[in-house]
Amino acid sequence: MGTEFAETVVIGGGQQGCSVAGALSRLGYQALVIERGEIGQAWANERWDSLRVNTPNRTVAFPDWPYDGDDPEGYMPAREVAGRLRSYVAAMGIQVREHTGVRMVEFPIDEALHEGARFRVRLDDGDVVEARNVVAALGGYSSPRVPEVAAGVDLSVTQLHARYYRNPESLPSGAVLIVGAGNSGQQIADDLRDAGRDVYLAVGGHKTAPRRYRGAQILDWLQLLLPEGNLETASGGRGDSPVLPGVSVLSGKDGGQDLSLPILAAKGVTLVGSVRGAQGGVLVLEDNVRAVAQAAADKESELLKAIDAAIEQRGLVVPAADPSPEYDPSLIKDYGGTLDLVANDITTIIWATGFVPDYGILPAEALDQDGLPVHRRGMGTLPGLYYAGLPEAGSVMPLLIAATRNQAERVARHIQMDNTLRHRSPMAIGGLWT
């Protein structure tokens, strides 16, 4: 065991953490990245095999490392993102300590061994790193959420969270129930159905959008036209719940596809209501399939009208909206109040019920009463504490890879300002503008 010093410790070796370290490297500063698994852990090891990134390849870019492939409008496999991130780390000379967990971050610290240290980072292996700055790049989706109702399901049924689903062949034979209709739930349902499995999808609140609209990617419109009120907000119909929602349901499969409850129903997926209870082999459902599908259709209509209004207000010359059929509620049927797992040969339940943030390693003073970070645009409430990969101003758009670079460069500039003012005259701050 020993104590070392790093000017900046970045906790998390995913796209956000490595991008902050890369942005600092461009400015002449070295950071130590600490990662519990491997570089790009979530992309490399915590996604299903067929998953492709939901945003175009051109958005998979890091500070001073633009996409350089030959398919900018395509959608790369998840594991390719991890590979590109690893190449970026090597090229930028970023120091990453893999397979190392952080036990806690202490602030303030007494009797610091290194001048200027404000934090003491205690590692699982017993080592200690003192640091002036800490960047928590843990993301908002760090801990799988499985509802309490899962405990009431018969033990003969295999249960797993979406994080641990890999492919249809890895599941027991029989039908599969997916609980949750967000991005993961609908994409996994599509993956299993295309493999010939009988699939049931228990619906829940979500948002949908067309992959392309009026000559551009829908995510481009959201990023460029609606930065303040882009309708991809962290409320997501969940009120004050700490469970973070995802962006609109889309698929990167086969060059990018739309995905929705009607599309899945047409492919043979059986839609059932939201799960409200479990009594062994029978689930208690809310009879709300049609209501949930209608709400998603209404939100999509609201989104497209907002984009149309922004286009008109700015006088942009773009193609007219393609005529699309109105949502037909007759395509969706309510299922009823119960689902008999045995009678329907359902042997597996996949809980696509989201994630919750886990920032318990940080000082209590940095968190609110729910254990969530208190921050403004990535700046924490403690001096020298920063965040990367969190929603900003209620929007979850900053969680997309496309926003990683801007977030990282902003955090790096703040760290540069602190370092400059410590070691040089206050007049030197003027040089940071160039």
TrEMBL record:
SUPFAM superfamilies: FAD/NAD(P)-binding domain
GO molecular function: flavin adenine dinucleotide binding; monooxygenase activity
Keywords: Oxidoreductase
InterPro entries: Auxin_biosynth/cation_transpt, FAD/NAD-bd_sf
Keyword Protein transport: no
Domain of life, source organism: Bacteria
Name assigned to this protein: Flavoprotein
